[in-house]
Each structure stands twice: as structure tokens, then as C-alpha cells.
Sequence to fold (248 residues):
Amino acid sequence: MNRLGSTVLRFESLPSTNDLAREMAQSGTGEGIAILAREQTAGRGRQGRSWSSPPGEGLYVSLVLRPGIKPADSPVITLAAAVAVAQTLEQDYRIPSDIKWPNDVLARGRKICGILVESAIEANKLLYAVMGIGVNLGQREFPGELKDTATSLLIESGQSVTPDDFLKPLLDRLEYRYRQAMAQPSEVIARWEAMSSYARNCVVRVESSDSIIEGTTRGLTAKGALVIEMDSGERREIVSGEVKLRKG
Ligand code: BTN
Fold:
């Protein structure tokens, strides 16, 4: 069992650290290898979005994981990553943080970190998972549509932090939360719920590829799905989609 990030492979520029980590996982690389790039030219986000990755301004890292769990139990891995990032921001950099389901880390309501976990499944077995984490560190402002929705560690705290500075404490927390996700997933879920203002009693609209659901959040299930109580009183368990606060 290798510690997460006990080996870090560093690159000046990559299309996407997740792509290289996936290739390496597919060709047999063991758990724990971290791929770090100073810049990404095709950084990817959830739901086909891109991830802005200017050189030296953010942490762009992907970890190869080989969790011995069933695919249905894997969402807790992404929740564990969000908890690890939010705790690093709060405890090491004094930045009050929030988590929007499933794994956007926010500061003052703006996105400071995104997490993209991609996994390979065969015959109901999880062959590997790649955990990609992007944290905005040194941006002073953001272009276009990110202007009003994104923030960085520099904007939030005035501190100039290098990707390596941030990676070190983050890896310790990821190691702890990832092992906890394997051994006691309910502890990760409870921690996630405690750190997220979205977890309970939050009026939201959840958009996914095939449905739109509106209602009030009622916590997470044991597998990390978001429970929404609709106005009719019916409860739905959401496993994918985009959560937005509902106004009025
Ligand atoms: C999201 O919020 O939509 C997820 C963003 C994930 C970005 C990270 S940066 C490192 C890794 N490589 C990628 O191409 N994406 C992830």
C-alpha cells in the first residue's frame, strides 16, 4: 500500500494530468503515483467543461488510485477529496470553505477548487480511479464567465502559495481521507455533511442530462448520493448533476 503522492512526477506542461494518469493506470502503474503539471493546455472539468490552467497559477495534480471497492461505493472517493481540500484551505490557509455537492470547493460562494474523478470499470470491478484536483492559487482575476464565479487562494487570503507548498499538506489529508473512505466511509460522509452548507435544508435545483429536480436537500445517503425532498414530499437520491441554489 503506497502512500498517496509518495512519488510525484513533475511536468512543465501537459494537455491534462488526468489523461496521463489514466494512461499510466491503464498500463499498470501502482496506486499513489501523482502527476503534477505547471500548466495544462487542455485541462478538463466535469460535464465536458474545460479547466483554466495557466502556468504556475494553480495546482494541477492527478493521483492514480486502486481502491478495492465496488463501483457503486466509489462516489465516497470524490467526497473524500473535497473534504481534504476544504480542510487544507481552512486549517493551513485560514480560508473559510464550503463544499457544493458533489465536490466543488467554494470560498465566499466562488469556486476555488474542482475535482474530477474518472474510473475504469470491468465486470462490476473498479480497475482503477484517477483523482484529478485543480486549485486556483495565484490568479488575481479570472477571464470571461469565470469573473464572477471563481476565486483563488491569493484573492481570498493575500498569500502567494506555490503548487508545491499547497500539495504537501494536501497529500497528507488526501492520504488520511482516502484510507478512511475505504475503511469507514460513513466518517467521510459525516465530515462532508458537516463542512457543506448545501448538505441540508438548502433549496436547490439539480440539473442532469435527463432531468431537472427542485427541492430541499436532506443530507447524503451512505453511498454519497444527495437526498432531495421535492415539494410533493417525495424524496429522490441524486447521483449526478449540477446543483444550483434556487432563488425566491
Ligand atoms: C470541475 O470542477 O469540473 C473539475 C475540475 C478538475 C480540474 C483538474 S486539474 C487536474 C486534473 N486534470 C484535468 O484535466 N482536470 C483535473
